[in-house]
Write a structure and sequence with these properties.
The protein is an alpha/beta fold. It has a single domain (12-17, 30-119), classed as P-loop containing nucleotide triphosphate hydrolases (Rossmann fold, 3-Layer(aba) Sandwich), CATH 3.40.50. The protein contains three helices and five strands; from the N terminus they run βαβααβββ. It has helices at residues 23-34, 41-49, 53-77, and strands at 12-17, 38-40, 83-86, 112-117, 124-125. A five-stranded mixed sheet has the order 2-3-1-4-5, with helices on both faces. A hairpin with a 6-residue loop joins strand 4 and strand 5 (124-125). Helix 2 (41-49) crosses helix 3. It starts with 11 loop residues before the first strand and ends in a 7-residue tail after the last strand. The model is unreliable at 93-97 and 102-110 (pLDDT under 50).
Length: 132
């Protein structure tokens, strides 16, 4: 049964950022407060491939990793609402096949809310109506 309640969002929340940016730490806390499951995209990719990410890159290269990443993230986003921590490749600006960018759903209200962490310490939302 999917989580529910007044604070439970009706869509997934995706935290995107570089390694060490705090996606997992913040994601776990956010998921707990919203009564949603937390999913670490990198851990899911490693489980699906049966190898650590570094080994996938070394053995098969970045293109193969990105393809696997795309498929895993697409599978995760087809599930009920969750808080998902994902690397920057899940929402690569130059990748029209990105599962985050190409999700179906009515616009301008997307099915996910995506927050980015980077050099600017303030998180940014992809939703036009969200405050900066």
């Amino acid at each position: 049964m999917p989580p529910s309640g007044p604070a439970c969002p009706s869509r997934s929340i995706i935290l995107v950022g570089l390694m060490g940016a705090g996606k997992t730490c913040i994601g776990r806390r956010l998921a707990s407060r919203l009564n949603l499951p937390f999913v670490d995209g990198d851990a899911e990719i490693e489980a699906a491939a049966g190898h650590p990410i570094e080994e996938i890159f070394a053995r098969h290269g970045e293109a193969a990793f990105r393809d696997g990443e795309r498929r895993v993230i697409a599978r995760l986003l087809a599930q009920p609402p969750q808080v998902l921590a994902a690397g920057g490749g899940a929402f690569h600006v130059r990748n029209p096949q990105s599962p985050v960018r190409s999700r179906p759903g009515p616009r301008p209200k997307p099915r996910e809310t995506t927050w980015f962490w980077g050099a600017d310490p303030r998180p940014r939302s992809t939703n036009p109506g969200d405050a900066d």
